[in-house]
Amino acid sequence: MIAEGRIALEGEVLTTPATLLEDLRGVTVDGKPVAPPAAARLWRFHKPAGCLTAANDPKGRPTIYDRLPAGLPRVMPVGRLDYMTEGLLLLTNDGELKRQLELPATAVVRRYRARAFGEISQAQLEELSEGVEIEGMRYGSIDANLERRTGANCWIELALTEGKNREVRRVLEHLGLQVSRLIRLSYGPFTMLDLAPGQVGEVQREELFRFRQTLK
Fold first, then answer.
1. Angle CA(197)–CA(202)–CA(205) in degrees, nearest 5?
2. Model confidence pLDDT, tens digit, residues 18-63
3. Is 112 within 8 Å of 168 (Cβ atoms)?
4. Predicted model pTM
5. Are 176 and 132 in contact (CB under 8 A)?
6. How many other C-beta atoms lie within 10 A of the C-beta of residue 43?
7. d(Cα 172, Cα 160) in Å, to the nearest integer?
8. How far is CA 82 from the centre of its chain?
9. Containing H/E element for 183?
């Protein structure tokens, strides 16, 4: 764009990309002022089961963008939830915030609730605190607790910080359980509150600011 003469600073067309800027004042593209970056925003979305965390699907399956209400700005999901996994999915308009929340080093705790078929003991679940390796993939510490049994099914609550692809399902299947329902309850301090499936609610800027101050 600079080589094509489309970028100017205070009316002077730039001829080199080696130009240092303190801010975007006076910068134009094709004669139009460049807007300052939008402030970082974060939304809670109660993702329903049966939609992909993706922009589109070659197989034609519904995605979260088919479920999101009209009127939102361009948003990106923070992490992913599987097609059949439901619950809290954070959305943001800011790539830096997205990366910050997803980095394993940031150690943001994700909490899940799983309904599974099969026999499991609390002692077996507690062994997950040491991490587990499954088919060459190492999964970090998971805090898992047997909540209750309902017939042949049990409800398990889990807390983890890595969030690898299909981590909860793979770990529970490794323990001999068949997961029939998986719900993400929270991501860091953010929960679904009273959002119904498909509903979105914005995180207050003060709440987001305080949370970002705690990140590593």
1. 155
2. 888 888 889 999 999 988 778 899 999 999 999 999 999 999 999 9
3. yes
4. 0.83
5. no
6. 19
7. 13
8. 11
9. strand 178-187
The strand pairing partners of 154, in sequence order, are 116, 149
Catalytic residue positions, numbered? 82
Residue 164 and residue 160: Cα distance in Å, rounded?
10
* 185: Cβ contacts below 8 Å, ≥ 6 apart: 87, 88, 111, 112, 113, 157, 191, 192
What is the separation of C-alpha 192 from the centre of its chain, rounded to a whole number of angstroms? 13
**How many CB atoms within 10 Å of residue 95?**
10
What pairing do the DSSP bridges indicate for beta strands 143-150 and 153-160? antiparallel
Tokens of 79: 């992490």
Largest Cα–Cα distance of the chain, in whole Å? 75
> At CA 102, angle to CA 54 and CA 58, rounded to 5?
15
Radius of gyration of the chain (CA): 22
